[in-house]
Amino acid sequence: MKRIFIFLFALLLISCPSAKKSASLDSSEVWMGVYLQKQKIGYSFFQMQKVQEHYKIAHRFKIDLSMMGQQQEVISNFIGYTDTGFALTGFEFSFLSSKNTFSAAGEVKDNKLVIEVKSGGKSQTASQDLGGPVFPVSILGNLVIKRNFEEQRDYDIPVFDATILKVADAKIRVLGNEKLNINNKIYNLTKMTVTMLGLTTTMWIDKNGIERKEESPPSMTTIEETREQALVQEPAMGKLDILSMFSIKTDTVIADARNIKYLKIKMTGTDFSGLGIADNSQTIVQNNPLVIEVRSNESLPKINLPVSGGGEFLKPTLCIQSDTKELKEQAQKIVGSEKDGAKAVDMIMHWVYTNINKRPTASLPSALDVFKTREGDCNEHAVLFAALCRAVGIPCQICVGVVYVNDGFYYHAWNKVLLKDWIAVDPTFGQFPIDATHIKLTEGDLDEQAKVLNLVGEVKIKVLEFK
Length: 467
Description:
Elements: H1 3-12, E1 27-36, E2 39-51, E3 54-67, E4 70-82, E5 88-96, E6 101-109, E7 112-119, E8 122-129, E9 135-136, H2 140-147, E10 154-161, E11 166-182, E12 185-196, E13 199-205, E14 211-216, E15 220-224, H3 227-231, H4 242-245, E16 248-249, E17 262-268, E18 282-286, E19 290-295, H5 325-335, H6 341-355, E20 357-358, H7 367-373, E21 375-376, H8 378-391, E22 396-405, E23 408-419, E24 421-425, E25 438-443, H9 446-449, E26 460-466
Parallel strand pairs: 9-10, 20-21
Antiparallel strand pairs: 1-2, 1-15, 2-3, 3-4, 4-5, 5-6, 6-7, 7-8, 10-11, 11-12, 12-13, 13-14, 14-15, 16-23, 17-19, 17-26, 18-19, 22-23, 22-25, 23-24
Helix pairs in contact: 5-8, 6-8, 7-8
């Protein structure tokens, strides 16, 4: 149950330069400390160089957090190449944790971004059509200065985010000038906001577009430091536990939560618009405040494999590699000659539940990696389950929300399969169908899941009824 952990990394890729006095649009080298709820969790390093007729951008960050008592270290490296207008021409990206390595590289050719991903010992290639130039997230401050963006006006910029391997729209607004005291130095900086994937980040940049400070949800700050300051690590004892920190406590104890068939709750504390909350098992009965009823499916429909009408939810992706030999063979081995869709889903769910070791894992989840390592938390279970289902013709997608465990609601990921209707499955808990304490907030790939980050630390849940 750590999807929020991955969201933090996605946001950190927006972190970019704070600079030395000698920095310019042609070169800069920056060190920043990264803080979550005022406790240091890592550092960010940014370097930009102009080489002949292009820019080379290097961005590295290291994060160290506790998850369920286990220390998790993640290192991300991004190298980007742009033209003199900062439009992306190519990139290399890696995301490393204790047992997982995810890497990707891409190049813009003929107005297409061609991406190759290496995961689980295999390479996958995909291309995305571009409507025009796209820009790395880490140079948005430089772009604002180079184009002389006006104050109090919105600018829509297509940006590439390596964490989700997609192009997304960023809305930029320059708010004006503001003086900040950073490390006992007073700076006159330009304050701007960047809204991307539903998340709004505030940045303070200097006259060259070099960032000195950034604030982003949930309660994260990156700020200019010396190299020595940035590299200082907090002691292991007392580190923030990312899962407990953002859990949602409630004054109602739900005994035997895994067998709850009906739940009625009130959710307050933030704006829930733009999320995919309502579906065939969740009903919004009131807005402002938001009241939701959740019902567990009582029966499973009969439908034979392969299921038709699944569209994109039958297709492989760069991280759900359902067309690979390894996953196709494993999926077929699991279901055998079974043609009943519900029975096949139950067989795949049971195999993932029993064969994947439950372990907090900091990763960008890839089905092939999970199949190889045989360990992970809810993200890894969900992505492997989705790949195995799609491999035998069962449309499947990933859901993100919260689930009741022990003393409150925790952020969690699970799945939905299409068997005439969409029915939820939780391969981490071994449930098909799932209990009614699962509250879905959105569904889809990382770009959709990131929308939940705005809610983290803000949501309050009151249990009104359960049975």
